[in-house]
Amino acid sequence: MNPSTHQEVTRHLKHDYSLKLSSCGKWLQQGRCPSCEKKELFTNAENPWVIRCGRENNCAYEESVKSLYPEIFEGFNKRHKPTKTNPNATADAYLQMQRGFDIKHITGWYDQGNFFHADADKGTATVRFWLDDKRTIHMERFVEQVTITDPNTGERTKRKAHFKGSHKGMAWAPPGMKINHNDEIMIVEGCLDAIACTLNGFKAVAALSCVNYPEHYIDQHKDKNITWVWALDNDMTGKQAGRRYTKKWIQRMRAEGHNCDAAMIPQGRKKVDWNDRHISGKLNKRLMEEYRYQGAKLIARSASEKAILIYQNTERREFPFDYNNRTYWFKIDLDKLAKATQKEEDKDDGRTEEQIREDALREAGAIAEIANCKAQFLYFQSNKVTDESWYYCRISFPHKGASIKNTFTGSQLSGASEFKKRLLGIAAGGVFTGATGQLNSIVKYGLYNIKTVDTVDFIGYSKEHHTYVYNELAVQEGQMVKLNEEDFFEFDRLSIKSLSGSANLQINPVLEHYKNDWLPQLHTCFGAKGITALAFWFGSLFAEQIREAQKSFPFIEIIGEAGAGKTTLVEFLWKLVGRRDYEGFDPSKSTTAGRARNMSQVSNLPIVLIESDREDSVHARGFDWDELKTAYNGRSVRSRGHKTSGNETYEPPFRGSIVIAQNNQVNASEAILQRICHLHFTKGEHNAKTKALAEALERTPMEQISGFLLLAISKERKILQIVKEKSAEYELALMAFPEIKTVRIAKNHALLMALVDALATVIPLGDEITDETHDCITAIAIERQHAINSDHPIVVEFWEMFDFLDSEHGWLDHSRDPSVIAVSINEFVQRAAEKKQQLPCLVQDLKKHLKTSKARKFIDIKSVNSAIDLNSINNKANTKKCWVFQRER
Prior knowledge:
Layout (H helix, E strand, L loop, with lengths): L2 H15 L2 E2 L5 E5 L9 E4 L5 E4 L8 E3 H4 L7 H4 L9 H10 L12 E5 L8 E7 L7 E12 L6 E9 L19 E5 L2 H9 L4 E3 L8 H6 L6 E4 L10 H16 L2 E4 L11 H6 L5 H14 L4 H12 L3 E6 L2 E7 L1 H13 L6 H12 E7 L2 E10 L4 E9 L7 E5 L7 H11 L9 H11 L4 E6 L2 E4 L4 E3 L3 E4 L2 E4 L6 E2 L4 E4 L19 H23 L2 H8 L4 E6 L5 H11 L15 H9 L1 E2 L2 E5 L29 E2 L7 E2 L6 E6 L7 H5 L1 E6 L6 H12 L2 H4 L1 H7 L2 H20 L7 H17 L6 H24 L3 H17 L10 E4 L1 H10 L8 H8 L7 E13 L6 E10 L3
Parallel strand pairs: 10-11, 10-12, 12-13, 17-20, 20-26, 21-28, 27-32, 27-33, 29-32
Antiparallel strand pairs: 1-2, 2-3, 3-4, 4-5, 6-7, 7-8, 8-9, 14-15, 15-16, 17-18, 18-19, 21-22, 22-23, 23-24, 25-26, 30-31, 34-36, 35-36
Helix pairs in contact: 9-10, 11-12, 15-20, 15-24, 15-25, 23-24, 24-25
């Protein structure tokens, strides 16, 4: 390891894991293992490429320092530039520091080159390997990965290597490597793998890719009785190209009469190649026997041949195994084996002891098919909140049908009958005919040291992981990854997936497809209020982070008469985040449980409540706006009990934002109204031009605008910084207005104004639109304060009717106290009917609104000694149940 790199790595390891130098100076040890928390972590002090836990049987944690500290092993193009005295400086540093090679042993095997592409994100130095004597054909490995964007489709491709000239049928061999008769030559994929094997005493050549059969190189040595050992990468993906091509090339070699074998590195939680084995010190003769054993199993010609290999290697008398995507059970009878061995020895036909034993095993071994498919357990996933867990499994068939991926619970793996039923239910035609004991053996070895994938039960931002998790892609600190072959997202130190399938966001990851021409259309159609709605929608993508900083996130109300364009606006805003043909859900048609589940489906995305203002709806009576009060602070909107004998409850926090889209404004308590920013749209400014532009917005392909979401969250830090700085500034400015008295109103609208400023970093708003929108938000903040100070129209109408009815005969006010009014609602309804007055609404709705009365403040519902209702017998006052209000001063 390079001295400067060694010093930096050692410093990090000592600080992060508390590693201490041993007395002999050869080891860094007594570090705290991140997996088991025991002080058993150690590494080689001179070459600390890999840290390991000393508890091999109980923990076996192992990680390369390249994965732990990638920043130390990057930036070679800038940090190690070539010089006149050393034109290979960048390549040397890369091979030494990133690949762990002692470059004095490979001098002259490579040159330093350069790669540049007009459509690439950058140029890079390369390590160039010549493939022919004339030096006209070469392969070069990039020192830093390059991303190339197709100018026609906008598709991005990550590349690590480049070829000049046709390399079909060719191979790269380390210069000076001598090929002798009866040699064993490994055929690996890359030149770096060939170097790793050669430096560890194994002759190797690079096929340059798994799809290239190096027939020209093989033909050059066809008379030397070479044993060609195919050692391609053991892919962890579902495609498994290395395994597939190993079998293909072995079959071809056998047909051509070559001696051939295979070697395969067993894979753990991360893909490991021959270069990785070199770095970790696990490329030696003892371990090579294990790699050859794994390769031999891969290329076995029959199920019995594979079973014999496993028995000879493990000496287990019975075990499950798979061959050609079928599952078998092997069991041997030792008495039968002894008789078969004696029988084969008696033939005395010149076979070796090993051949005799193999023949005897074939005769004595019992192999039975127990499943017509192969089950491969990929990883463990769980929902810690609900205490549910599953094993994610890939089911493969010997026919050409696609593999099936689905989950098994612990109970479904505990018995043969349950496993059989689940298999039949998820994989068409998949049948398990084995017994529970055989299943136990499959599970025992299939689940050992299985990978664990973190899960979330929603779509959107996970605050615990600082990661945005969507259906097909995830983003962490600006780094975007797509769903892998095993249906989860894998970052450097995080594996995560969403268990939710309710909200389907189809986000176009090709940002070159994104267009901004929708902005002037939106502004022309909906004006500053439309930009305000857009800013709120944009802010919803950061609701969790904003709540963490400000302890709240406001609601927004988009109302207006029918035809004002509310649906067009909301559906377009949904398309900006990849959701097609969706507006929201109607809470008045939902049960309490249904509303709670809708509220929990997404994070850092809007929850849109539509058509909840229908006061004649039977269901509407079951929905109270006060249910949303806790959502303002991100707390749970509903609690439900777990199905356990204990007191456990499930209270998922509210992670999104609330958008209310309906015809009439919300009628609720003052606490709810203070939480709402109100936008009222009308048809007054609609014309033929705005109609055409609105229709253009409706026709805008989602593929052209869904990149808005990615552009926004890629600037997460900058946006949150603007919101933090500007919110406080705008709040003080709003509170300076004499009309605004409520701090919460100022805080909510100040956040909206700050979000407009932040939005300008993602789309080109311009100063004119920004200032116009700020003025609009200031106006709606003042309007909100006035609305809170005023009574609901139904309450105003009630008091007008009360004054009319009561003024004529004094029929309605039962109060003896001149400072209060006491009115019986039933009497009020009766007197109104007698005078042919139309009630403003249903009685039950009237009672709900009267509790919000402000001009004549509601006090209580109680029994009152009536001042106007006397008993006809004794002329004493009757007691009446009345609604009591403070009299207007």
